[in-house]
Amino acid sequence: MTEPTDRREPEPASGEQQEQTPEAADKPRGDDAEATGAEAEAATDRTKGPEAGAESEPEAGKESEPRPEAPPPTDPRELRIRSLERQLAERDATLREYIRAHKKAEAEFEAFKARMRRDREDDLNAARGRLVERFLDVADNLERSLEATRAGGSLESLRQGVEMVLRQFHQSLEEMGLERYEPTGEPFDPNTMEALGLVPVTDAAQDNRVVLTLKAGFRLGDREIRPALVQVGRKM
Questions:
Q1: Model-wide pTM > 0.70
Q2: Maximum separation of any 2 CA atoms in the chain, in Å
């Protein structure tokens, strides 16, 4: 007797496999869930954006604001120290100004001295030129006298030529204000004369007087250029 075969009909798919329940339909899957979360976070950021910006602006404003200055000291010693420092700075500035003014004045004075030195040298050179110019004619006449002597001129003509040159020389000296003097017969003056020796005399009137002038003296105004070289009489 044949046993009946146990046939089992396939069980129908459960409702969970055949159809999605409303809860299962609403539940996001895998990547869809992640995308949905990112969109939610972005929405949240957009919602909080203005508030976050508003919170950051005050912080930036706090950084740009200047720091409040420290209150002035009230300690008398601190006030005294600051006053002394201020006075010291003012005096230091004044001293520096005086130093600059002194250096400027010193430089100007040095420039003035250099200019005066140049002017004095120019004046001396001009005076030397005028002096030399006066004696050029004297030198020319001396040369003519020598040429006449070489050409066979007489001794008398040579003497006359030398006397003429000497007169011209003395005239040139007088034109420059130079005075020539021979103190023969005058009382001896040690300020303007130089005694070369004593000469015995018998006349009392010649005692301590110039009996002979060896070299004439010259003076220019009140200045003694060269004292006269003389011999002085001494009564024995």
A1: no
A2: 218
